[in-house]
Amino acid sequence: MSAAVPIARRTAGGDAAGRPSKVPTPRRPGHTILGVIIIAVMLFPLYWMLNVSLQPAGNASATPWLPLDLSFDGYRTALAEQGGNLVTSLVVSLGAVVFSLLIAAPAAYALAHFRFGKWVVVFLFAVLTTQMVPGIVVANALYSAYSDLGLLNTYAGLILADSAAGIPFSIILMRAFMMSIPASIVEAAYVDGAGPVRAFVSVVLPISRNALITSALFTFLFAWGDFLFALTLTTSESMRPITLGLYSYIGGFVSDWSPIMATAVLSSLPAIALLVLAQRYVAAGVTGGAVKS
Known about the structure:
Elements: H1 4-11, H2 29-53, H3 73-113, H4 119-132, H5 135-149, H6 155-178, H7 183-191, H8 196-207, H9 209-224, H10 228-233, H11 242-249, H12 258-287
Organism: Occultella aeris
Transmembrane segments: 32-50, 90-112, 119-143, 155-174, 211-231, 257-278
Pfam family, one: BPD_transp_1
């Protein structure tokens, strides 16, 4: 009689211990439809931007809903007039990534594994404070300093300015990740004869690949989308990032929107490509320091 009870429970949808098994909740089509509608509304501006860029006549008010009569004249005009600005943005963004990682990676490792006592909290508080300062205040201060140092309208000046946003973020992110690295791994490198620099380069950095890629991606996006520093620290047309070039491209009266939208599409491609390629590294890098090994 007692053996019949568990059998009856299992046949009624329970497990071997007599607990009721979880029945998967059926998907509701209403939620799926709502999600599709929300995504369509969010992506519609991107679609319309692409649609207008492919029109032979760039009047946005007369643009059809579907780009049936395709034309790439807008892209040819955009590359001819804004190609130099795209190159400037690419050089500045990649330079900001390299400079930020060169500063932030050793600083994050030192804060994570070296003993500084209470000074670590003070330094991290100072890093967080730099993130709270409005950008316009920093830009005005940099303009006076750059004018005295001769850094206006230079790649180095824009790289240093854009790194001001990437370095604090990278330090905080990579420190959280490097704190999860067991100290025994670094100590094993010391036993094998490696010094602090060799252990950092050969052991810590390869393990921190996800955090490095995440920091590099966000720093690139910061620099690529920068407008305030570009507007304040450049005065010549030969040294204009794409954000400032697109801003100056739009006049008070615009008769042809195709080149403008084509420029916007071209300026969006690097960010979209990097996000697609690095999304799995970003997810691992952001959550890597959440659990300490």
